[in-house]
Specification:
5 helices, two-stranded antiparallel ribbon, about 210 residues, alpha+beta, about 20% strand
């Protein structure tokens, strides 16, 4: 069965309820009408601000990239490349701008082979610390709310000083299974405080 089109033209004097039914305004309580108007008005303003922030970010990122390129070309100064991480300061040190590029890392199918080899190691080792290591491994390979294995949790296993050859092969398999699925660019702005430290200028509405 085809999914019903959720976009529906609402005639004047009616509103859609949560089930998609048309309800005359005259049959809706005044407080429900006011609540609906309030939510819709605030969401409309939020969409406008969201678009403004998106335009601001794009313009700021382009200006930073242009400056980094110009600085590198004219003065031989390298700030990390036009697409890498870079920190720029105002002349008086009052303001600081950071452009950061983060990578989204995921595991491919080889992570299962690494997990199997780790399990073999634990089974082969004598009793003692193996129970603790097994608990650590099980914790590292937990699936998060998005259904993915946390890359950083698994990579923490590579910090264990274990010289077993099978374990080392498993750690190599973990490294080989990491794939870059994409990147995200972040823009962070800071202002120097009276104590000399820098405080980030929040662009997240929850931090205002």
């Amino acid at each position: 069965m085809e999914q019903q089109n959720q976009t529906q033209s609402v005639p004047a004097g009616y509103r859609l309820n949560s089930l998609g039914h048309l309800v005359p305004d005259s049959q809706i309580k005044a407080v429900d009408l006011l609540r609906d108007d309030l939510v819709r008005n605030i969401l409309t303003m939020a969409r406008v601000e969201q678009q403004r922030l998106a335009v601001f970010k794009a313009q700021a990122m382009n200006q930073v990239a242009d400056f980094v390129y110009l600085s590198g070309e004219e003065y031989g100064v390298k700030y990390g490349g036009t697409k890498g991480n870079v920190t720029l300061m105002s002349f008086d040190g009052q303001y600081k701008l950071q452009r950061a590029v983060g990578e989204h890392r995921v595991f491919d199918e080889r992570i299962q082979a690494a997990k199997a080899k780790i399990d073999v190691c634990i089974q082969r080792w004598s009793e003692g610390s193996s129970d603790q290591i097994k608990a650590l491994v099980d914790h590292a390979f937990r699936v998060n709310k998005q259904g993915h294995i946390d890359v950083n949790q698994v990579l923490s296993l590579r910090q264990l000083d274990i010289s077993d050859s099978d374990w080392i092969e498993a750690m190599d398999a973990i490294a080989d299974s990491i794939q870059i699925s994409g990147t995200s660019a972040y823009l962070r702005l800071y202002e120097r405080q009276a104590n000399g430290g820098y405080k980030q200028i929040p662009l997240d509405i929850s931090k205002l």
